[in-house]
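Worked problem 6 (solution included).
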Amino acid sequence: MNVVTPNMFQKILIVNRGEIAVRIIRACAEMGIRSAAVYSEADRYSLHVKKADEAYFIGADPLAGYLNIYRLVNLAVETGCDAIHPGYGFLSENPQLAEVCAQRDIVFIGPSATAIRSMGDKTEARIAMQKAGIPVTPGSDGNIYSIDDAVALAEQIGYPVMLKATSGGGGRGIRRCNDEKDLRKNYKRVISEATKAFGSADLFMERCIVNPRHLEVQILADSYGHVIHLFERDCSIQRRNQKLIEIAPSPQLSEEQRQQLGQMAVTAAQAVGYQNAGTVEFLMDDQQRFYFMEMNTRVQVEHTVSEQITGIDIVQEQIRIAAGYPLRLQQDQVKRRGYSIQFRINAEDPQNDFLPSFGRITRYYAPGGPGVRTDAAIYTGYVVPPYYDSMIAKLIVWSLTWNEVVARARRALDDMEIFGIKTTIPYYQAILDSDAFQGGSFHTGFVEANPQLTHYSGKRRKEVVAAILAAAIAAATEQR
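Solution. The predicted structure is:
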């Protein structure tokens, strides 16, 4: 194989904000690459603006600047950037950004526009996976164009069913229908949601797998035909189709299942000629059968846990692949060690139906110690704006065993302090104290099955601490 000696980028424009922008800036710094940030008026004092080598104002509107493809690519050209990194969200899965970058001779750090488009279309992705021999959930062969067709198909595959936006993502444009009445009620709703969120009214249908395990596999693919996986992540604990906690590897899989899942993900990537970092998502039913769900053509929020168990910097690998370098590792060289858990720290009030909580952070303390990592874009005095996703930080912990990583997660969450706003930290403390989580057994219905966790007061932990203290005092007394 002849590999042309590539040239590493000199400067990258990061067309995103928040913790993912900070994450990319750090990767660039370690690689000796200059980083350029963009910011709206709402983000003028954000951490990514302070951390980047350069920062450029993109307008007063909190959203418009981050979504203006031509302006962002023009900015990259004008400021001498070699490449654009989209992060996740915003334009990261918009094929037009990749196309415009190519037109202006700017490297898009991600897959090709063709791969983004084909995998972004859920119907097209299902068809591609079926051709590759990867199982998909029973459902429509293509898009559904009338409620009558939807009703007929639902009767054929059996309720409950899921209506899904063909261009959907991030848990939006999805409705579960338990019977024909639900289906008729939700049909127009999904069309409306899809049109507003994704600019397309197309939808399809799948059989609803009740309380599945949500598993995803991180893959890396270079431009020389090499594809590897970095094992799986368990994303089963979610609320309203939004992930809350992510774990790598899954404590719910056997080694044989792990290998099967990883190979299916590699096959999926090869089937569509994929390049760069991506994630192939699957559902596992109560019979332990896997079904392809979708492919995310970008770095994921939860990429951190895969990094922790493999020691591979996924963002740096993205940059290397986009610059034309081959993968540095073959599959048998990718080793995993221990377990890692990530908690999405959201500015929300769990005791008030997870109502967003924005405002000034009066005090912030990030936990540390062995096996603890915090990816954040906040600091003491920072004002959390109301215009963006509520996630303000990610707490990631690692340890050698499942029991040890749960114990470390408890300690790190106890150490983490964010004052001035409400966060989901108490909710995660409650989850860690639940028997189901400690036993490594959970599914996507976990949150709905445990509504009492939103009113957690820490009583159980306080009782445990009190018992330990009492035992220590008693032991000391006996020694005297």
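Discussion: The first helix runs from residue 18 to 31.
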